[in-house]
Write a structure and sequence with these properties.
Helix content: 40-55%
Number of helices: 6
CATH class: Mainly Alpha
Oligomer: single chain
Strand order of the largest sheet: 1-2
Number of domains: 1
Structural class: mainly alpha
């Protein structure tokens, strides 16, 4: 399994989340709300539905990550120089992570309790997503002081399976990148752009 310099990994993840916020503020927020609520095709998700889906994961994982970091700090687990990914955490991350050209390695159906509603409240979803990303940035900063390999987080599907905090951060942010690219594709359709090829470069803001 891959090993990472812990500080470098956390800084790269922090940069990834900052880029997602920049994309939100520069590419998504200025658009008419009607465009953000327009599905690109029947049965496909609109921009707001993509964000609503991500918010549902944040509502679970952000408190779990905070609790894990709280435990690490309370138990005095010092930050380690190296973080080694677990096989399951690395698998989940690679499954979610888009390829450089934006293509997905696999398609999957969202669990029933993480599917967005047909007509979400756009302003509420945008505000929640912004707040969650700001909280995620703060958690990544806190994680610099704790051993992210020793503290663990139960996955949303079953609390019987736990990932390290480091792998949970990696998986969660890869999942966000996946669906922000989906949101950008939906936005291109809604604004009349026939070219919906969106690479990871779009997430550079």
């Amino acid at each position: 399994m891959p090993a990472f310099n812990s500080k470098t990994l956390l800084q790269e993840l922090h940069n990834d989340v900052s880029s997602l916020l920049n994309v939100l503020n520069s590419r998504i927020m200025p658009q008419p709300r009607a465009a953000l609520l327009q599905p690109p095709a029947p049965g496909s998700w609109s921009v707001i539905q993509c964000l609503d889906h991500l918010n549902s994961y944040g509502l679970y994982y952000l408190p779990q990550l905070k609790a894990a970091l709280d435990r690490g700090e309370h138990r005095g687990f010092p930050a380690a120089a190296t973080f080694k990914s677990g096989w399951l955490g690395n698998y989940f991350t690679n499954l979610m992570q888009p390829k450089p050209d934006g293509a997905l390695k696999s398609k999957m159906q969202a669990p029933k309790d993480h599917r967005p509603t047909p007509q979400p409240d756009a302003e509420k979803v945008l505000a929640e997503f912004t707040a969650q990303q700001e909280q995620l940035l703060r958690l990544l900063e806190r994680a610099q002081r704790t051993n992210i390999g020793r503290v663990r987080v139960p996955i949303s599907l079953t609390k019987l399976i736990k990932l390290s905090a480091g792998d949970t951060f990696r998986f969660l942010i890869a999942h966000e990148q996946r669906h922000i690219l989906q949101a950008l594709r939906a936005l291109l359709v809604a604004t009349g752009n026939n070219n919906t090829a969106v690479s990871m470069q779009y997430l550079a803001g």
